[in-house]
User: Fold these one by one.
Assistant:
Number 1:
Amino acid sequence: MKKTLLISLFFFVVSWCGAQVLPRYGADTTAREPLPAKWRVVWQLETENGGMIHNNKQVREDLNDIYYNGINLKVGWQTERGGDLYHQRYHYPIYGIGFYASTFRKKEIGTPTALYGFVAIPIAPGRFRRWDFNYRISLGMASNFVPFDEVNNPNNILLGSHRTVFIDLGAQANYRLGKRFQLGTGLAFHHFSNGSIKLPNKGINLIPLTFALTYHPGRRQPDFSKNADAPKENDIAHHLHYSFGIKQFTPGGRRYFKSTVGFYGSRSFGYKWRLGLGGDLFYSDSGRYPAVAGDSKGKFNTLFSGGPAFYIDHVLTKQLYLNGNVGLYLNRHAFNGEVSPVFLRIGVRYKIFRKYYTGVSIKAHMGKADFVEWTLGRTWLRKAK
């Protein structure tokens, strides 16, 4: 099960209010020569413990005694003055990669590991002498699950694949011990899902409490001084994208090709947000087969679905942004997994050229994943009047 609403709610709460960040209290904000990359490295070792969010009654009954332990090793690079102006707008965050390992003490689930990228963003930096606060967003790939198998592993009713998407959202408070060390504690949300590429896909959702030790080997603070930021000249954009993926309807059954064509118009609201409207047209190859579509197979109305949608971007850098949609079907089919009149999307996109972008997202129906979308798109920009 895809807890898309929970992920979206958590994300917007922390965005409006983590991961490691360097202390800022009393930092020298005088502009100076940038630090070499090797002195902007930040290391963090983090342990976490907690329980699982039970998706339904069957999961609660079969796996109620699960207690989870995990560990993260992260290496990040502290941004400073002189790079992307979005670094300044987000109080100079840390970007990095992390390795995750965990155990559920259940051999039928496995001992998953993950490799991921993350951004750790300070919250109101420099207000306290020894305390600093931040939130983080992480995305990567997990593996080493023991998937469902009717004969060999029938008790894993959560996941049908060895590998899944790994999504992590967290908030953290850090206490400075000295110039190079910090102790931290926080709360996180983890989600594992394969996007219905292979069933079952009830997914795994965790809320662990975290404890961390952070080490910064730098000889001095990075340059956290800020340039005057010009007011944003708002613009109008039109976005055209094509996405594709695959979906399985029954465990061990055939996998079907799915695709999306979307067109949206949006307006910038400051540097960090874009809002707009548009719509998506979805194609599902399952509509060609009588075993799925019945007597309606092959008809245009069976192969295609879609409807209008609300559009939102949260811009992190000049090239990287988070994208979301909330849409309403005008035409949908329950046999195709479109079990709700509302469809959702959450994902990440990256500008590969000035006008073109690529990305990955999960389309879902409330708490249930539809499929993973691999996306290519183009944007047309003009100034707002």
Number 2:
Amino acid sequence: MQSYFPKTLNSFSGFVRLAQILRTFTFCGELLRINGGARDSWIEPQECRSFYICRDAWLLTLPSVGFRQEYLDTLYRYAKFQYECGNYSGAAEYLYFFRVLVPSTDRNALNSLWGKLASEILMQNWEAAMEDLTRLRETIDNNSVSSPLQSLQQRTWLIHWSLFVFFNHPKGRDNIIELFLYQPQYLNAIQTMCPHILRYLTTAVITNKDVRKRRQVLKDLVKVIQQESYTYKDPITEFVECLYVNFDFDSAQKKLRECESVLVNDFFLVACLEDFIENARLFIFETFCRIHQCISIGMLADKLNMTPEEAERWIVNLIRNARLDAKIDSKLGHVVMGNNAISPYQQVIEKTKSLSFRSQLLAMNIEKKQAHSNRNEVSNARPARHPRASRAAPSQPATF
């Protein structure tokens, strides 16, 4: 493969040859992507790795063979042209080449990351899109050149674009909780610029499959919903507020009915309808059972918006799946709750298990502030320079 690579790129013919090589890389990469996952594929995994290693190693040697900056600009414009023509696979491949070749300080580096993410989303390559989302987030968080307002704007766009990935990736609902709820910079962006994102965060928490994690996360989510209740409300957030703040089961039941229509008409949440209704009913039931020791199945069915027969079958399934410590008295039509008091030792563990994470977060914030103050001291110690006109930041990442 090395014999096909041009030794110098100081001529137009060299650039044409480069374009041909990149097109070959794109075709081979697409061929590997199509055949690599097939059961009867004639392409071995080792051959795929060898191809990508050879490609990346050659790309990294380009700056030492007379590669010009205008070639990169042309490559970026060509990738954008492919994107506008609807060739998203070609655009993603060329933008990958562009990202490998340019430094992070290039004027088109950030826009190329947005374009790569958009291409993967449009092709529904959710694994690649998740990797691009993580890379873009790291670039935005580590960018010390942008002003706080520009960083806030970039994070706001990232929050909105990430919904495509989080609600289609298998681990997306866990990642959305970690990013939106436990990263202060992004939680601040949600509270400042886009409180309507709380709808999607709340849905992700309610439909989370990890029961222990869900209970702990709910406590933190309720605090955020209470703080932002004066700026944003919808049936989904109001359902949580009615159930865990006001303990108003009748209002929670009404809000649950409204949640169904909201989920059906929401592009991102329509696939979560069944999980949401199932878990919401479980939340109502668990909260109701903490207050009452003996519950009538008829009254419980009314609270859950179900018939008595459906409610009884639903409770039986919960008991069978070891999700509920209770017994059913069929003669009286009652559910008798078991005694599952939490030991003091377990209570201490629940209250202190987040201290390690919060301590690490506090240490990271202190280190960032110290590094920022050190940079300011160094910049103040340098002699003054003539001011230069600064390039205006794009109003949105869609400038790709």
Number 3:
Amino acid sequence: MLVLGLISCIVLRALSAQAKVVHSFEECKEFLYQGKEPSGMDQNAEKICQKLQNRGFYYASLYSVRHKIPLYSAYTLDPKCSSDNRRTDDWHLEPQISQPGSPIDYMVPDNSDNQNLYKGNQAISSDYSHTGYDRGHLNPNSFQCSDGRTATFTLTNAAPMIRRFNQRHWKRCESTLRSYLIQKLVMDGGSATAFIVTGTVPDPNVRIPEDRKKVTVPSHIWTAVCYKHHTDDSKSLSFGYIGRNQQEEPDIRLMSVSDLNDELRSHFGTQQSIEIFADDCFSDNNKLVEVQGVFQKLINLPVIQADQISSGLQDTYGAVKRTFSSDSTPEKRVKVNENTGKMSFNSMITYYSLAEKLNAFARIVCLITYTKPLGRKFVHDELRKREISTGQMLLNASWSQRSRRLQLMAHSAQASQNLIIAVNATQVVKSSPAAPLPAFTRTISTATGVTQTRS
């Protein structure tokens, strides 16, 4: 029995004795696109394959002992984690960072006993106390499930982030990214992998806590995404974004991975090139516009590649910005509750079909403003009044009522297809501001459309 017990102990130890601090990421390369780590970062930083005791690996981190923060964490997103909302705030330390010869190759609790043992080469929770900085995750716990969520709560996966930046600005980026990637992964039926790298730009002039100046505060936080489809490269894409680690105006910008590489090299002040993903991961697929539409809608991220935005959108954005800054109207007290664009159709059948789709998928209501037969130079005043009245009546009716009336209008127009039909496509955004907004009405015209802003 004694021999069997000894053999069991040896086998268990062999199963768990996988390196935590490693010379290369070979043991956890599944979290890296093409198995290749980002290049051009601090070559003296420690490589960590993150794991729990008697568990497998969950992600990879590059940790700077000099700055006491990670330079990046590389991870993937499993769409099955979308329903896992469990969270633990039990933080951990990595023994092998402070004691390279330690046989303990897994995370240990960040308690008072372990803090005294391992505080030499890494940050501990007390370094963050009363500083105004959060222990901000690089690999977000919300991107993992079950034990993987626990594994994200290590100080080697956290950096000092201004509380408002972490809990508002960056959190919105994480939530938007998670929703976007889960939707794509589900639509592709598991035939793709989302490789993600989130990192820091250490600012050597800012350290916490005030009395010890131990942990470097990053000036910027960044994320790069490589979405690799397993069988159809036309569905693969990559993008990145970066923001300033500050309370207000973090200037979070969406960009290509190539541009992010260049920006990081500028921030790091190095002549060595930086490459987050091998060959920038399908950056030539030019899918940034697709990503920009999702991110700008949800978190209002600006895009630095202006050539990927249509000239009409640029004109509209510039006009709105100039109008808001031309007087004393506080920008934060402005709400946009109506966005109007003009379209024309050559038949009522076409109009009715598109009107149904717009309402079903985007909750946009199209109002007929006028119709006229082709070849005629005027529209009778009474007819036009009647048509505008019909449009207003449709707006006030329920969609089922509007649908029925549009059908009747479409059928009545079947015998006369040669019509020009102009409509206003209106989308109303409901909002309940905490304070009353200033009363104003503006109409901003561009070459491509009209935007109406009303309170």
